[in-house]
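Bumping with the actual sequence this time:
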Amino acid sequence: MSNVVHLLKPHAPAASDTLKRMGASKALPDKNSRYVLVTEQCSVQPGGAVPQSLTELVSTLRLMRGVAPVLWPVREETQAAIRAAGLDRRLKDAAVFLLPSLGYLETLGLFARAACVVVGQQGEMLEEAAALDVPVVGIGIGRDAATASRVDD
């Protein structure tokens, strides 16, 4: 995976361009600010319970308030799960800026200025963070996924 990430990195749009296009530049104190990037995604089946991991993730993100801006690109199903659990208000209070879903290259571009990446149980983008030497905060992540990210391809 490391080789693929480094091959694609030059083709990723600049973080500042993506953030400006998404309207997230207002979430940052200045255009060179670093931020916490959240990559976890989840979904809830109709009538299903919201995963405990989502609630735990939001609680952890609330603790980061004031440390650095927190940006979280979320897919529609994750956004729906956040709303279903009533967590959208807690995220707003914690100054977590929700971005619409991004493509792979746009997300890879955001790694350039990320102070760290927060991953959840699924470990989404964990290998990319490891390949780019971006520190990772794993919440509820299994040992096997963390170990796998350190294996150099």
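The tokens above came from a reply further down the thread. Helices lie at 2-8, 15-21, 52-63, 76-84, 88-93, 104-110, 126-131, 143-148.
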